From TrEMBL:
GO MF, one example: metal ion binding
Origin species: Cohnella abietis
Name by which UniProt lists this protein: Iron deficiency-induced protein A
Entries under InterPro entries matching the protein: Ferric-bd
Entry binding sites for Fe cation: H58, Y245, Y246
Swiss-Prot/TrEMBL keywords: Ion transport, Iron, Iron transport, Metal-binding, Signal, Transport
Cellular component, GO, one term: outer membrane-bounded periplasmic space
Lineage, highest ranks first: Bacteria, Bacillati, Bacillota, Bacilli, Bacillales
Annotated signal sequence range: 1-20
Similarity comment: family membership: Belongs to the bacterial solute-binding protein 1 family.
Biological processes, Gene Ontology terms: iron ion transport
Length: 364
C-alpha cells in the first residue's frame, strides 16, 4: 500500500473538507497528496467513548448528521476519510490496534470487498432491523444500507420528449448519435452500472451496449456527473447517464447559475418494463476490531432512524432506506420506480470484466 499521510483537523463540522479517492475502489473528487494517497481525520480526536468512522464518503450531510448525533447523545464522532481501498488496507494493516469502529462507503461491490477482506464483523440490532427493510441489509449482517442512489437518464426538457426515452439500451440507437453524455470508465458508478448489465444480460450484450454508447457520445467522457448536467444546459449533449442526487444537489447550489440548471432537466428511470433502473447503495459495517461497539451501534441506529434518514435525504438528496423518512419534494416529484433485482456483491464480482469491456470499446 502507498504511504499514507494523516492530517488532523480538530473540527466538529467541516463541510466539504472530506477526501474521497479516485483509486480502483475510490470515489470522485479526490484531493490527493503527491504520492497519490491521503487520509484525513476531523471531528473530535479524543479517544474513549467517541466513535471513529473510517469513511470513503465526502458529503457535508454526513458530518452534519454526526454532529446532530453528538448533540443528542453526547457521543462524539471522529471521521477518518480516504478512498475505500485505502481505508480497507489501513484496517488490515492496523489489525487489532485499529482505531476504526465503523466503515462507511458507497457501492455494494465495495462493501462486499470489505467483507471479503476480513475487516468487518456482523452487526446485530433489533432496532436497525425495524428501521431498515431486509433488502437493504447484508444477509449475514456484515453491513447495513444507509442510503440508495439510482443511475438514470437525465435529459434536456426543451430538446427531448419524455416519450422518446425507454431503456438504457435505447441510447445506442442511431437517433442519439452525437447526443449522449457520460463520465469516464474509471468512475466506480459506471463500473457498477456495466457490471449490473453483465450480471443480468451476459458479457456479450453488455459489451454491445457499451460500444453503442461510445458511438453516440456527444464528446469524450470527462468530468463528474455535475459536469454532464452542465453540458446538457450548454447544449453540448441532450441526454446523460447520471446519479439522481446530483440533480438535487445542483438545485440548492450557492451558485445561482448552477441552481437554475435543474429547471431545464428531466429525470427518467429506464427499463421500467424490463429489469428496472440501476440502484446502488451506501452502507456501513462494524469494524472487526472495534473497541467501542456499544456507541458504534447507537450511531448506526441513529443514522437509520427516521430523524437521521430525514437529515441525510435533505442534505445529500439520496434516497433513504427507512421508509418513514421525510424526503425533499424534488425526490417525491420523481415518483416510484422499479429497480434491478441483483445481489449487490455482483458489482464486485463483475467489475474487472466491466473495466475490460470499457477498455476494449474505447470508453476511456
Amino acid at each position: 500500500m502507498k504511504r499514507i499521510t494523516i492530517m488532523v483537523v480538530m473540527m466538529l463540522i467541516c463541510a466539504g473538507c472530506g477526501i474521497s479517492g479516485s483509486g480502483k475502489m475510490g470515489q470522485e473528487n479526490a484531493q490527493q497528496s503527491n504520492d497519490g494517497s491521503q487520509l484525513q481525520t476531523h471531528a473530535s480526536v479524543r479517544k474513549g467513548q467517541a466513535v471513529t468512522v473510517y469513511t470513503a464518503r465526502h458529503y457535508a450531510a454526513d458530518t452534519a448528521l454526526f454532529a446532530a448525533f453528538t448533540k443528542e447523545t453526547g457521543i462524539e464522532v471522529n471521521e477518518i476519510k480516504g478512498t475505500a481501498e485505502e481505508l480497507v488496507e489501513l484496517m488490515k494493516r492496523e489489525g487489532e490496534s485499529s482505531d476504526a469502529d465503523l466503515f462507511f462507503t458507497v457501492d455494494g461491490g465495495v462493501l462486499n470487498y470489505a467483507k471479503r477482506s476480513g475487516v468487518l464483523k456482523p452487526l446485530f440490532s433489533d432496532k436497525i432491523d425495524q428501521q431498515v427493510p431486509p433488502k437493504w441489509r447484508e444477509p449475514e449482517h456484515y453491513w447495513i444500507g444507509v442510503t440508495t442512489r439510482a443511475r438514470v437518464i437525465v435529459y434536456a426538457k426543451d430538446r427531448v420528449r419524455r416519450e422518446e426515452l425507454s431503456t438504457y439500451e435505447s441510447l445506442t440507437e442511431d437517433k442519439w448519435k452525437g447526443r449522449v453524455l457520460v463520465r469516464s470508465h474509471s468512475n466506480l458508478y459506471n463500473q457498477s452500472l456495466l457490471a449490473s448489465f453483465i450480471a443480468l444480460n451476459g458479457e456479450e450484450r453488455a459489451e454491445q451496449w457499451a460500444n453503442g454508447i461510445v458511438k453516440n457520445l456527444a464528446r469524450a467522457p470527462e468530468g463528474g456527473d455535475r459536469d454532464q448536467a452542465k453540458a446538457i444546459a450548454e447544449g453540448i449533449g441532450d441526454v446523460a447517464i447520471m446519479n439522481t442526487y446530483y440533480v438535487g444537489q445542483l438545485s440548492v447550489s450557492a451558485d445561482s447559475a448552477e441552481a437554475r440548471i435543474p429547471d431545464g432537466l428531466g429525470v427518467f428511470f429506464p427499463n421500467q418494463e424490463t429489469t428496472g433502473a440501476h440502484l446502488n447503495i451506501s452502507g456501513i459495517g462494524l469494524a472487526r476490531y472495534s473497541s467501542n461497539e456499544g456507541n458504534a451501534l447507537k450511531l448506526v441506529e441513529y443514522m437509520t432512524s427516521k430523524e437521521g434518514q430525514s437529515l441525510l435525504a435533505q442534505g445529500s438528496f439520496e434516497f433513504p432506506v427507512n421508509e418513514d423518512a421525510e424526503v425533499p419534494e424534488l425526490l417525491k416529484s420523481w415518483g416510484t420506480f422499479k429497480t434491478q433485482k441483483l445481489d449487490f456483491a455482483d458489482f464486485e464480482t463483475y467489475r474487472q470484466k466491466a473495466i475490460g469491456i470499457f477498455e476494449r470499446v474505447g470508453w476511456l
